[in-house]
Amino acid sequence: MEHEAEYAAFVDERWSPLVRTAVFLGASPHEAEDLVQATLLLCYRKWDRVRAAADRDGYVYRMLLNVLRSDRRSAWWRHRSPHPVDGDAARDAAVGDAAEATAVADAVHRAMLVLSKEQREVVVLRYFVQLSEAQTAAVLGIRPGTVKSRLSRSLARLSADHHLADLAGGIS
Amino acid sequence: MNNLEDLWESYPSPEPPTADLLREARRRARARRRRLIVRPLLAAATAAVVAGGFVVGAHTGGKGGTATSAAGPALRNSAFQADLRPATSCNQLLASYRSRALAQVSAYGWTMGAATDQRAPLTSVHGGFVGPAMDSFADSAQAPVGSSGTGTNVQETGVDEPDQVKTDGSLIVRIHGSTLSVYDASGVTIRRTARLALPRLAAGQILLAGHTVVAIGADTAPRSSRRSNSPGSRIETVSLTDPARPAIVSDVAYSGRVSSTRQHGSVVRTVIDAGLPDLGFVYPHGKVTEKQALAHNRRAVRTTTLTDWLPTYDDGSGARPLLSCDRVAIPPAGLALGTVAIVGFDATAPAAFDAIGVAGQTDIAYESASHLYLTSGGAGGGCACPLVAHVGSMGADAFSGPCCGSSSARTTIFQFDLAGIRAVHVATGKVSGSIADRWSMDEAGGVLRVAVSHPSSRKPSSSVITLHADGTRLVVDGRLDGLGVNESLTAARWFDDLAILSTARQTDPLFSVDLSDPAHPRLLGALHIPGYTTYFHPIGEGLLIGVGQKVAFDRSGEQERAQVALFDISDLADAHRLDVEPLHRWTWPEAGDDPRSFTWLPDRATALTAFQANRGSTVLGIYHLSGRTLTARLRTVPMSDAANVRTFELSDGRVVLVAGGRLQFLSLAAG
User: Where are the beta strands (DSSP E) in B20-164?
Assistant: First the structure.
């Protein structure tokens, strides 16, 4: 089916950045994969809307954030099937990177401790994922001006703690 | 290393699990169509039977009676008495599987139909329904509905449903994951008397028949050789003859998912969905072109054998076919591919089971006191285009039917007579539209009533349709269309001669439908209130408790809060809300997802119902009815998931609160 081909390509392309984003937003590697899986399953379900979205990236990251924020209330974790998605186990085993992923995630989480949740979201979306200021604002539901001010404060914090090599980085 | 940019770059990127995600997405798309459009619609022939006194009488005579239906035509020696025909040979069966599979395989594996979100557009207004002036005739709504004999809030009186905890009145049995615990609740405190590990069973639920526990769960033993998309299941029976020493009596693994289990007396009947085999499909990516992928996948289908398709069972002596070829009906052309088995056994003699199968995909199982109904198709089911249900037309125009998502989607309903552990197919019928879930179906007085929705038509709406068996056909008696235009059905409650339906958009119209003349369902009234209801419970004297949400479909989720309302339906032409008790923000009613989290205690005029709250907490709402007002008390339960909270009453009248592993008596005294 046509939309499935499109969807498969979409998953191929988005999986890694989304997992990375979830880890940077505070999830463990395993949680991150669960969250991204839930997000992408949601994308399948709302494929028409994803497709129609003027800003596909914005839409997907917004969904990821929603899934992340609502993780404790219902959606993905309560309706997770008791059985892992086929292939989960195989994947876990295959990834010798698991240890590295955990190490990286720990380092990221330690570094991000200096930021509030709101600051962290801005930094991750704008600085690391490199969404535009307008996209970031739309995803987080805040004004572009807020993105700017929050970002500069956050980057200053990170760089004061030497978590960023170079503050300049083309952000303005 | 603590440079975040380096960390961003160095985070490992394994291969995306695209194929797994696709498969899971399709599976959920199918499951969701059953769930989303209509939340559980609780039905109760009960009140009806008690008050109206006609019909089902003999079949609902409490949990002791078996739900046999010896009446009806003398049974020939076949499980298939109507238009479902058993395979004449194994070759014929395999050929049928293969040829139908070829029509359902694509370059991406099995096709399951489009995955569109079918929620109705948020436009338009309520249809102009005018309820005729009616005097009070809701007699069947007079009797309250309590829980089953094992303390579970069930759909049908006399038909028990599995749950995580059961009681016989003084003894409590609970399963958590793979551990069965037995408690003695006859003393001042609840004491655990025994514990039994069922290590090969996960996510278990239990039934209790006398001293026998039937545990149903996912199979955790290593997969058998059969390649299957569906995870396996396991059913174990445990004897509590000595409650201090529960002992496993039987242990059977099934290759397939248990989609429904019901208990009539000591007879347990389970519907096992073997799904579609995992044939190692590929999908186009990298160097694999679409054409190559399709060729590969078609080849995989052509080389299947019956072991790929038919479910197996394993009672410890090796996997054996659950169904012989002549016990499997080849469904009429058009039914989506799959295999479903109906397995019946007595809890006290689990080894002697009866099993029949249908080589098709069915979606919903509803069991009344005397019949089992399986539905297939409609936008709610396996309606992979062009495999739309065309039962009865046996191939004639099998592939000219409407596609999935078409407004004229049809649902096929198979009716099975239940005679002890046997199930016999006796009639088949079709309705236009989709049946959302088992709560949308109800049988009373030999009449099957279904609420169907037409979610994909240009103007989505719901209908109530009545059917009865005429020979081997289920024929439509009457229908009422146009309920809740552009809205989705969220809850329903059935009475003998009455249906209460709720649909939602931004307000919650509550429709009352007169079913006293099955051939002419009539709309009696529509009550428009804010929010929506996901679960109704009749509490007698024409009163109804509705559990729902204050605001329907709030996009931001900022306004999500649960509420409990009291309705007066004694005058159906003037159904009205007497009282409403909203909860705080970020609360979601569990009863809508799972009515087993709701308990009505008739003697205490008190309802107990769990809510999921944010930050992983659960709120138990205690609603006391005095006169015509509800008094609410809320209690925080230290439980992250409201789905694990249950309440029930013991035979001595004390009420037990189960929150995960904690069992305690619940004090209902105010203050």
Answer: 85-86, 105-106, 109-110
In this complex, which of A48, A73, A91 lies closest to B17 when CB atoms are compared? Answer: A91
Residue B62 CA to its chain's centroid (Å): 22
What is the interface pTM, i.e. ipTM, of the complex? 0.82
Kind plus residue range of the DSSP H or E element containing B580: strand B576-585
Q: Are A136 and B36 in contact (CB under 8 A)?
A: no
DSSP B199-263: TTEEEEEEEEETTEEEEEEEE-SPP-SS--SSPPEEEEEEE-SSTTS-EEEEEEEESSEEEEEEE
**How far is residue A168's CA from residue B2's CA, in Å, rounded to a whole number?**
18
> Mind listing the pLDDT tens digit for each residue in B393-418?
223 223 323 333 343 478 999 999 99
More confident residue, B82 or B565: B565
The predicted pLDDT at position B640 comes to 80
Residue B502 · residue B532 · CB < 8 Å: yes
Q: How far is B17 from chain A (nearest CA, A)?
A: 8
Confidence of residue B284 (pLDDT cuts 50, 70, 90): confident
Mean pLDDT across B541-552: 82
CA distance B651 to B256: 37
Task: For residue B408, give the nearest of B378, B363, B435, B430 by alpha carbon.
Answer: B378
B403 touches chain A (CB under 8 A): no
B477, B468 Cβ separation under 8 angstroms: yes
Per-residue pLDDT at B181: 96
> Which has more pLDDT, A109 or B150?
B150
Q: Which residues of B touch A8 (CB under 8 A)?
A: 18-19, 22, 108, 283-285
DSSP codes joined into one string, A4-48: HHHHHHHHHHHHHHHHHHHHHTT--HHHHHHHHHHHHHHHHHTHH
CB neighbours of residue B153 within 10 Å: 26
Helix (H, G, I), strand (E, B) or coil at B316: coil
Q: Which two tokens stand for residue B604?
A: 């205490």
Among candidate residues B88, B74, B103, the one with its CA nearest the CA of residue B329: B88
Q: Do A7 and B22 touch (CB under 8 A)?
A: yes
CA–CA separation, B358 and B438 (whole Å):
19
Is B106 in CB contact (< 8 Å) with chain A?
yes
Q: How confident is the model at residue A165 (pLDDT cuts 50, 70, 90)?
A: low
d(CA B414, CA A77): 34
pLDDT digits 0-9 by tens, B301-311? 999 999 999 99
B:617-656 residues touching chain A, CB 8 A cutoff: 640-641, 643
B79-93, B176-190, B512-526: which has the highest mean pLDDT?
Answer: B176-190
Rg (CA), chain B: 25
User: Within its chain, how far is the Cα of B512 from the centroid?
Assistant: 23
Question: What is the 3 state secondary structure string of B593-639?
Answer: HCHHHEEEEHHHCEEEEEEEECCCEEEEEEEEEECCEEEEEEEEECC
As a whole number of angstroms, the distance between CA B499 and CA B493 comes to: 6
Q: How far apart are CA B13 and CA A102, in angstroms?
A: 13
Q: Using one digit for the tens of pLDDT, what is the confidence trace for B597-632?
A: 999 999 899 999 999 887 678 999 999 999 889 999
How big is the CA angle at B165 (ends B622 and B593), to the nearest 5 degrees?
Answer: 60
Asked if A85 and B278 come within 8 Å (Cβ–Cβ), the reply is no
The pLDDT score that the predictor gives to residue B198 is 94
How large is the average pLDDT for residues A119-146? 87
B169 token code pair: 């009145």
The owner of tokens 């509705």 is B546
Look at residues B663, B550, B649 and name the one whose alpha carbon lies nearest to residue B607.
B649
Q: Which residues of A touch B19 (CB under 8 A)?
A: 8, 87
List Cβ neighbours of A9 (8 Å cut-off, separation of 6 or more). none
pLDDT at B461: 82
Question: Alpha carbon of B595 to those of B147, B178, B265, B309: distances in Å?
Answer: 11, 23, 21, 34
Q: Inform me whether the pLDDT recorded for B539 exceeds 50.
A: yes
